[in-house]
Amino acid sequence: MQRLYHSLRVTIAARTMLTVAGFLILAVVAGAAIALTYGAVAAAGSGNRLVVYGSLAPGEANHHVVAGLHGSWRPCVITGTIDVHDGYRIFRWEKDGARVDAQMLISSELPENWLRLDEFEGPDYRRVVIPAELEGKRVLANVYTAARNLRTRSEIRS
């Protein structure tokens, strides 16, 4: 009888330890899921932001393409390099690149216009999400960047 009692106590203790370990693992997984979700939400917030550095900027030749979108324009800073190709500026993001003054359009109408803007930009550009400095804070925003190496014409993968 004492052996049975001892065996039951060991079994209960083991199950309790497994339950506690299970809860700890669950808490870690839940924390990771929350962190990933927060990151996804932050990236998702970039859908309302477009950084422009060339012909789409206010006062430039192709501003009419975005002029009809309701929103606000704000100065921002991005990092990278700008080349000129066929008379148009092409930005290439670099984490430690030069600071480039740009303009950011913040508009809830951007998500429904991405396809139209992508088609306007054409095959030499692709839209990517990059960090930008806006009013002293780091935010994620869309920007059109070089789709191909301008010298070799090979596709750029990032």
Average residue pLDDT: 80
N-to-C CA distance: 68 Å
Residue windows where pLDDT falls under 50 for at least 5 positions? 32-42
Series of secondary-structure elements, N-terminal to C-terminal: HEHEEEHEE
Looking at how many chains there are and whether they match, the oligomeric state comes to single chain
For the CA atoms, what is the radius of gyration?
A: 25 Å
Tell me the number of strands. Answer: 6
Attribute tags:
alpha+beta, 2 domains, Hypothetical upf0131 protein ytfp, 6-stranded mixed sheet, 6 strands, single chain, 158 residues
Describe this structure in words.
With about 160 residues, the chain is α+β, with helices and mostly antiparallel strands. It folds into two domains: about 1-45; about 50-145, Gamma-glutamyl cyclotransferase-like (Hypothetical upf0131 protein ytfp, Roll), CATH 3.10.490.10. It is about 35% helix and about 35% strand. The protein is built from three helices and six strands; from the N terminus they run αβαβββαββ. The protein has a six-stranded mixed beta sheet, with no helix packed on it. The chain is elongated. Residues about 30-40 have low confidence and may be disordered.
Question: Which secondary structure elements does this structure contain, and how are they paired or packed?
Answer:
Blueprint: H1 2-44, E1 49-52, H2 64-67, E2 72-85, E3 88-93, E4 98-106, H3 114-121, E5 125-134, E6 137-146
Parallel strand pairs: 1-6
Antiparallel strand pairs: 1-4, 2-3, 2-4, 5-6
